[in-house]
Specification:
Elements lengths: L2 H8 L12 H23 L2 E11 L5 E5 L3 E7 H6 L3 E4 L8 E4 L5 E2 L4 E3 L6 E6 L1
Parallel strand pairs: 1-4
Antiparallel strand pairs: 1-3, 2-8, 3-7, 4-6, 5-8
Length: 130
């Protein structure tokens, strides 16, 4: 019962039993794998997450120096929108025309598309003469 003798008795070659697949089944398998990859990618990109974005003062006058109480704020949203978000713009309030400390309202913040603040903070802007 030696296997070498069994193969020689049958007169077959080992390569004769190689599995052959049709091209159609390979194409169908590739398409199914590609669709699964797209579905997983869409699920991952729509997961909610949070990220800290830097603040940038917009509308500043040249004769004043503007200092924010925080350098960055935490925002939350879908991963696809967080990847595109770079910064939060802070518009200088209209009443900030003289040196002093001013409270920044939510409407003074320009948030990137698809993100929202994780928590409301007391953001202040200190204006001083140069």
């Amino acid at each position: 019962m030696n296997r070498k003798h069994e193969n020689t008795e049958l007169g077959t070659d080992n390569g004769e039993y190689a599995v052959r697949r049709s091209r159609l089944s390979l194409i169908v398998a590739a398409v199914v794998c590609l669709l699964l990859a797209v579905v997983v990618w869409l699920m991952v990109m729509n997961v909610k997450d949070s990220k800290k974005l830097p603040l940038e003062v917009v509308g500043a006058q040249a004769e004043y120096t503007y200092v924010l109480s925080d350098a960055e704020l935490e925002v939350s949203g879908a991963v696809v929108f967080l990847k595109m978000a770079e910064r939060i713009e802070v518009i200088v309030p209209e009443q900030a025309t003289a040196p002093g400390t001013y409270v920044i309202a939510l409407e003074d913040l320009v948030l990137p598309e698809g993100v929202s603040l994780s928590e409301l903070t007391d953001l202040t802007l200190t204006v001083s003469k140069k």
